[in-house]
Design goal:
mainly beta; two-stranded antiparallel ribbon; globular; 9-stranded mixed sheet
C-alpha cells in the first residue's frame, strides 16, 4: 500500500514563466519552465526535500486547476527552483546551421540561425540554449543578440517575444580545434 503525504504547501508564490528552446533535447517544441526564487520573501524559505511539486492556479471562476507537476532534488534556501511544467504547443523553435567553413585544419567557423515563433496572444519570455562544440577555444565573432555564457560549452540567448511574432537570432562562432 502506498500513501501520499502533502509535506508543504505555499500560496501566492511568485515565479517567472520561461519558454526554453533547447534543440539538443527537444528539436521543435519549447519547454515551459517556471523559475521560482526559493526565499522567505517569496513565501518559501525552508529547505525542500526531494520529491514532486504540483502546480495549481486559479481559473477565471476562482477555482484551483492543475497546470502541471515536476520532480525536484533536495533544495536549500536561496537557490532558484527551475520547474518544468510541460511543452508549449503554440510557441515553436527551429535551429538551422547556415554555413560551416574549415579555413584550416585547426579552425572551423559555423553560422547558426535560430527562429522562434510565438502564436500566443501574450508576450513570452524566451531562452534559447546553445550547446557549443567541445574544443580548446571558441569565440562568438558575430551575433544579432548578445549571448549569455553559462559554462564552457553553454550559451543562452534571452528575449521577450511579442504576441503573434517571430524572432530570428543568428550567430557565428569561430572554433579553434
Amino acid at each position: 500500500q502506498i500513501k501520499q503525504l502533502s509535506l508543504l504547501t505555499a500560496d501566492g508564490v511568485a515565479g517567472i514563466r520561461r519558454f526554453i528552446f533547447d534543440p539538443a533535447t527537444e528539436p521543435r517544441y519549447l519547454l515551459v519552465q517556471l523559475a521560482v526564487p526559493h526565499s522567505r520573501a517569496n513565501r518559501l524559505g525552508k529547505p525542500l526535500p526531494k520529491g514532486r511539486v504540483i502546480f495549481m492556479q486559479r481559473d477565471a471562476d476562482g477555482e484551483l486547476e492543475f497546470i502541471g507537476q515536476d520532480k525536484i532534488d533536495h533544495t536549500p534556501v536561496d537557490e532558484e527552483l527551475k520547474l518544468t511544467i510541460g511543452k508549449a504547443f503554440d510557441v515553436i523553435g527551429e535551429r538551422t546551421v547556415l554555413q560551416t567553413l574549415r579555413p584550416s585544419r585547426t579552425r572551423m567557423v559555423e553560422t547558426v540561425r535560430i527562429r522562434v515563433r510565438n502564436h500566443k496572444d501574450q508576450p513570452v519570455n524566451i531562452r534559447c540554449v546553445e550547446h557549443l562544440r567541445s574544443c580548446s577555444d571558441w569565440k562568438i565573432v558575430k551575433t544579432t543578440d548578445p549571448p549569455i555564457k553559462r559554462s564552457f560549452r553553454l550559451v543562452h540567448f534571452e528575449f521577450v517575444l511579442q504576441p503573434n511574432t517571430e524572432k530570428v537570432v543568428t550567430y557565428t562562432v569561430d572554433y579553434h580545434l
